[in-house]
Structure formats: C-alpha cells, structure tokens
Amino acid sequence: MSKSRNFLLTSVATALLASPVMAEKLGLGRAALPEEVAAWNIDVSPNGDGLPVGSGSVEVGEQVFSENCAICHGEFAEGVDNWPKLAGGMDTLDRDDPLKTVGSYWPHLSTAWDYVHRSMPFGDAQTMSVDDTYAIVAYILYSNDLVEDDFVLSNENFLEVEMPNKDGFIIDDRETSEKHFWNAEPCMTNCKDTVEITMRATVLDVTPNDTTDDGPVAEPAAAEPEQKAEEAAPAAAEAVVAAVAAVDPALVEAGETAFKKCKACHQVGEGAANKVGPQLNALFGRTLGSLDGFKYSKTIVAMGEEGIVWDDATLAEFLRKPKDYIKGTKMSFAGFKKDEDIAAVTAYLKTFAN
Amino acid sequence: MTDRSEDNSPSRRAFLKGSLAAGGALAGATMARAEGPDPLITEKQSWAMGTGDGVDATPYGMPIRFEGDVVRRNVGWLTADTISSINFTPIHALDGTITPQGCAFERHHSGAIELSKDDYRLMINGLVDQPLVFTYADLERFPRVTRTFFLECAANTGMEWAGAQLNGAQFTHGMIHNMEYTGVTLRTLLEEAGLAAAGDFKDKWVYVEGADASSNGRSIPMEKALDDCMIAFKANGEALRKEHGYPVRLIVPGWEGNMWVKWLRRIEVTGQAIESREETSKYTDTLEDGTSRKWTWVMDAKSVVTSPSPQSPIKHGHGPLVITGLAWSGRGAITRVDVSIDGGKNWQEARLSSEGQDKALSRFYLDIDWQGEEMLLQSRAMDSSGYVQPTKAQLREVRGLNSVYHNNCIQTWHVYPTGEAENVEVS
Fold first, then answer.
1. How many other CB atoms are there within 10 angstroms of residue A317's CB atom?
2. What is the DSSP string of B142-209?
3. Number of neighbouring beta carbons within 10 Å of residue A13
4. C-alpha angle A218/A202/B167, rounded to 5°?
C-alpha cells in the first residue's frame, strides 16, 4: 500500500468531495442465515480454517483424477497441450524457464484443496465431494513425488504436509528494492551516447494476423491445411438418412458413458451452448467448423469450406486421432483407442438430431 | 480515427504558427494542394440529397460500419481455449481517456456468465457484527458515488519480458480500460454489517469472491478496503456489460485487475489472507533467484504511445504529426509525461489533455513536424508519488526475466520513413 504523503492527501481530498457520510446504519439487507453462510463460505485458509472433516487416498485419487481431470491435465497431472501442468518442475524456479506447478511452486496445500473443491473440474465446478477432493489432492501430491502411493490425506494430517516452496515468497518490496525509480528529475537531454535496436517483434512473428473484421485466428505453430476434400463429402447425404433408421438402445447407453470423456468441453441436448468446444446437437450432416459464434481453428474451417460434412466416416476418423485428421485442431483429446467407443458415441450423438 | 475536426484546436494552431515562424517548414508537406476542384465538393453527393436512417433504426447504437475494425482481439496461442482467456482493448484506435464498454478488454477464468439482477445476491460474512445478504435493489438504496478509475491486468505487457514480441499497442498494452463507475463504497457496506467484531483493523483482511464457476477470490487488506474500494453497478453511465461482471463488480482502484472481482457475490472479513490460487499460483512475481514476490497489488506508473504505433502507422506524409498516448499510475495521479523520438537520448514534455486524476488514465499529446525521419518513439510517465517509469533494463536488473506480471517498462516503437512502425527494444 502506498504510504506516500501525496497518496494520503489525495485520498483525504477525494473523501471530502464525494464520499457519503453515514451517521448510522440504514437497515438495508437482511441477516444472512447460517445455512446460507455455510453454503457459500467454503474457502480454506493456510492454517486449515474452513477444512471440512474427511479423507481420501492416493489410490482413490488416481481413479477420480483419471475420470474427471486427466482429459485436460494428463493421467499423471503432467498437462495436455496448453492446459495447466499440475506436477513436475521441481527446482526450476531460478532457471530460464521455470515450471510452476502445485508441487514446485504452491506455498500452501490449502490452496490446492480449496481450488479443486471450488473451481474444478473446468466446466463442471463444485461437483467433487469432500472425500474425493482429499483423494485428488493426495494424488496430485503423489504425482509430484511428495508422498508415497499408500498415503491417505485427511483433515487431521493436512497441516503436516510440507510444500517444497513454502518459504519461497517475500512480501512486495518494490518500495525499497526499486526506490531508485522514484527520481523527480529524470534526464532530459543527452541521456545516452548511442541507441541500438537490440530486438524486433517481427523477428518472432507471433502477432495475430490482423484480418480486419474477424479478429485474429493465427496460431504460431498451426500447420497448413491438408487436402482432405475427396474422401468424405459425397457420402454425407446418405449417411444422414441411414442414421435416422436404426437406433440401438444398448449402444446409445454405452455412448452416453463414453461421452463423459467429451462432456468437459461439449454440450448436447436442450439448451446446449458452445463451451470449450462447439455444441454437438444436429451434428450429422453439419459442415465441419460451421457454427456461428464459435472460434474454430483455421484447419477445420478450411476443411468445411472444402465441403466436408460430419458423418459416420468423418467422425470416426476424427475421434480415432483428432490431431491427425485435423492438423492444428484446438481439440485436446487424444482419441479413442477402441472402435466400440467411437460407434457408441456416434449412436449417442445421433439421438440429438435437432 | 484521423479526425479532421481537430485541426482547428488552439494548440494545433499554435503549433502551425510556431513552425511557420521557424522557417516555413510546411513547404512541400502534405497540405493537400488541389490538382483541380474536388468532386466531393463540386458534385452533389447522394447523402446530401436523399435522407438517412430515421430514429429508432438502431434502438441501441453501434459504431458505424467504417469503424468495424476497432474491436477487441485475442492472441490465440496464449491460452488453451477462449473461456479462461484474455483479449485486448484497441487502444491504438481510441482517443480521450474513457474506454467504451463494448471494446474494453475481457479476462475470464470460467467464461462470462449471465446473472440477472433478480438472481443476484451479495453476502457479507466473517468478522462482522451482523452477517448480511443484499439484493441488487438493496444496493441501489445506499448513498451512491461516481468515480473514474483505470483497470489494468497485472499481466499487461507480460509477454514482453523476454523481448519485443507482439507487434501492436493493442497486444502489448491493451489489457487496460478506464471507466466512470457508479456504485457504493465498500466502506459503506462493511459499516452496515458493523466492524466492531473485527477488532483491530491492522491485521484484518477482506476476502472477495465472484459468483461464476471460477469462484475467483482475492484477499484485500482492510486499510485498502476502507480507503477507496467500491461496489459498482454502472460504468460510463449504463449498466455493466456481462463480460465485465453484470450486475455488480468490485472496484479496487490502482490495484491489479484480477482483484476487481466480477459478479461479486461474497465479502468476508477475515483475520488472515486466504492465499487463494489467484494470489499464490498466479499474480505472484518470480525473481531471478527463484524467490517470488507476493501481494504485489499496486500497478506502478506506466505509459505508452498509442499512435503512431504498429497498428496505427502514419498515413499522411510529412508535416504536422500528432503523437499521442496514455499514462496511468496506481499510486496516484499522473503529473507529467515525457516523449522521446530518438530512443531515449533526448526527451520533451508532452501536453496532458487535462490534469491527471487519481488512479485514472491520462491522455498526452506531442505535436511535431515530421519530415520522414526514422523515429524511436518512447514515453515516460511520472506520478504524484514521485515515481518515474523505468526502462526495461532497469526492471530486468532487479527482477530478471521471469516475473510475468507488472511489466511497466518504457515501450519503444521504431517508426520508419514510410510511416510504418514496429515494436522494438533498444539499448
């Protein structure tokens, strides 16, 4: 907080000018009920305040994490693509490119518990139970080599866990360590002998292309669109017709389960909206990358413009290896290994025909 | 954005007179010497004959289509998706000091949610005499204040630590906006709940939290909470936009944007900082030796030339040129801005459009006679605390390259004889 006299003077002056002075309370609002406070007041502090009673093991955590978190953060919390890494990076903080994770950087374990419980999974926040949260946090610790595989985390042993970087923080010291910037008479003339250009932005060339109205879409490493046009387009119309014909309830049910892998990013059904990924209603017969209001990667849009349409064949190829089928796709999903899963998800998605 | 109507401003006339006196520098410049009569003048134009749109053609007006490129833009490779992401204010194309809401940058951690006034609730709990719940309508019955402040994301210019990266003021400095807010002071609400239960304020904190799925929460020292924070429901005269926290957001003047919690739902008086994810994992600044600064809330004095700049090149040839930009400080008011056209060898004082306001944007202008010479354009802000905007070298000396946040260094644009400009770093 600024302690300079100027700062205090200005704020006093502002206060006199504009702040309402309340002689007494206005009696607005109403008393918060204990149930209401309990529902919202769920933050957890470094000293353990706010931590509910419960426990969870690394073993359970591995499973819960795999089901709910791994799609973005990786099976070992190592991170997928651009999604945050939660493990690794130990002893890298003083290197050129520090890797900051729960293990290498976070000073308090409470922060991990609080954040997982309150803000994750992304797109489905506040769905982890207390015990599952303990288990997940135990698993994240394990992924960072901070506990053994038989470890069980609970409200009782919570404060015993030592975070490696707990002493790695100092309170803002700019007002002393950078006091030399406070200099009322900066140099005005002949301040240096020579001026050399030492770096240019165009060398790196990571600025989005300014394509006037649409806004930028460039990704630095995005590959050129591949020629895929021949394969799919003609088959599309028939596929749609065929799809309506036969629906196998067992397959659809299996598809609903398999779709859990997609749910973090896609919505289907009534009121489905674009989230991390586009909504998937009425998918079959739809041109690739064609929904208004969703920012697709360049390649999928280009493929759509070539006339490619979603049908059994194109979807199967995409879901087997998303990044092979659409180079540079924004969809970070590794792909289904089993054809059964693809068939099941396909059947399930067909039930959302409009 | 080249507004011809400014040509008659007093300063512009003074400048023209000055340069004429200095030896007729205008000869050969772009004083459009007519080749023949201008058909835009001599011929009748359609717009001067037929009629235009009637009232109500657009019940809520948008900028005319010619301004369609003055929009927020994002940098796709920065984040995994656009839901927890950021975009940038087109500062290169704006003037004055107020940022229109529709192009003021956005930063969400779980997307911009739709929360109606009817569904809105604000809770105050913790170390207060009486925990309270307010509806939106309750908030409108408290004594109201209206104040203008800038909001800057702590990561603004963060991509430039290692070197010049992004070619445009929008991308290097566009995580900023400046609005006139209307609402209630945080002090008013805290006093309504009663602070006797908090005892000594010295080590007390106010934890604030949003209603969206990210549940963004930050701890603010009681001293700041009672000083100038406010709960806002209007910006620039109208309701907040959804992307800026409709119906209610917190205003934490001069401090990093992440603390200005949107969709504010809870205010808790506590005896300690919560050390949430956004104040440990993020918004902490790692120094060269691997230790990190925390609680670096204040946004230091900073400025940038918005035009000419890479997205706003000089298109008009030689002669009079308006150099303009923005300056701000989280420690007080801007008192002075200097501009250099030779990469920091020599400086001249720019003109502020009006006296600097506490923790709000200032606009500066420098009118020069440009004869096509290459320029290394820089600006340097000073504030009422005596702080002087440092060079990148000065910052790196103290902090190294890994701080991510709080990069308030002097920016350099290399302007070529063609009038085009590039983001560069100079010795």
1. 17
2. S--EEEEEEEE-TTTTGGGSSS----SHHHHH-SEEEEEEEEEEHHHHHHHH-SGGG--STT-EEEEE
3. 11
4. 70
Amino acid letter, B287: L
The answer to whether the bond into A225 is cis (omega within 30° of 0) is no
Does residue B337 share a domain with residue B233?
no
Enumerate the β-bridge partners of residue B348.
B339
Query: Do B257 and B306 belong to one domain?
Result: no
Question: What Cα–Cα distance (Å) separates residue B112 from each residue in B51, B60, B86, B106, B212?
Answer: 40, 21, 11, 9, 8
The verdict on a CB contact (< 8 Å) between A204 and B294 is no
CA atoms within 13 A on the CB side of A352: 20
The C-alpha torsion from A268 through A274 and A280 to A282, rounded to 10°, is 100
Higher pLDDT, residue B338 or A351 = B338
Model-level pTM?
0.79
d(CA B284, CA B42): 63
Residue B30 is assigned to a structural domain of this protein: no
- Which residue, among B133, B201, B283, would best test binding to A if mutated, counting the most A CBs under 10 Å from its CB? B133
Q: Considering only residues B301 and B8, tell me which one the structure prediction assigns the higher pLDDT.
A: B301
Provide the domain count of chain B.
2
Q: Of B256, B291, B326, which marks where a domain is finished?
A: B291
Q: Under an 8 A CB cutoff, do B385 and A182 touch? A: yes
Which B residues 185-244 touch A at CB under 8 Å?
185, 187-188, 191-192, 194, 207, 209, 213-215, 217, 221, 223-224, 227-228
Alpha helices (H) in B22-159, listed in sequence order:
39-42, 136-139
Say whether B275 and A119 touch across the interface (CB within 8 A): no
% helix, strand, coil for chain B, step of 5: 20, 30, 50
Can you read off the two tokens belonging to residue A100?
């900051």
Nearest CA in chain A to B279: A111
CB nearest to B134's CB, from A29, A106, A108: A29
Q: Looking at chain B from residue 279 to 318, which residues have their Cβ under 8 Å from any Cβ of chain A?
A: 280-281, 284, 286, 288-298, 300, 310-311
Q: Distance between CA B420 and CA B416 in Å, rounded?
A: 5
Distance from CA of B59 to the nearest CA of A (A): 23
**Three-state secondary-structure class, residue A325:** helix
Mean pLDDT of B71-86: 84
Domain finish residue from B260, B291, B322: B291
State how far the Cα of B27 lies from the Cα of A306, in Å rounded to an integer.
Answer: 55
The superfamily (CATH) of domain A44-208 is Cytochrome c-like domain (1.10.760.10)
pLDDT in tens, A284-337: 999 999 998 888 989 999 999 999 999 999 999 999 999 889 988 888 888 888
Q: In what order do the strands lie in the sheet with B217-221?
A: A30-31, B132-135, B121-126, B264-270, B205-210, B217-221
Domain ranges, residue B243 = 73-291
Count of pairs with CB atoms under 8 A, one residue in A, one in B: 325
> Bigger pLDDT: B26 or B386?
B386
Residue spans per domain, chain A: 1-41, 44-208, 234-350
Contacts of B294 in chain A (CB under 8 A): 169-172
Let me know how long chain A is.
354
A80 versus A42: the higher-pLDDT residue is A42
Q: Using a CB-CB distance cutoff of 8 angstroms, which residues of chain A are in contact with residue B290?
A: 93-94, 98, 168
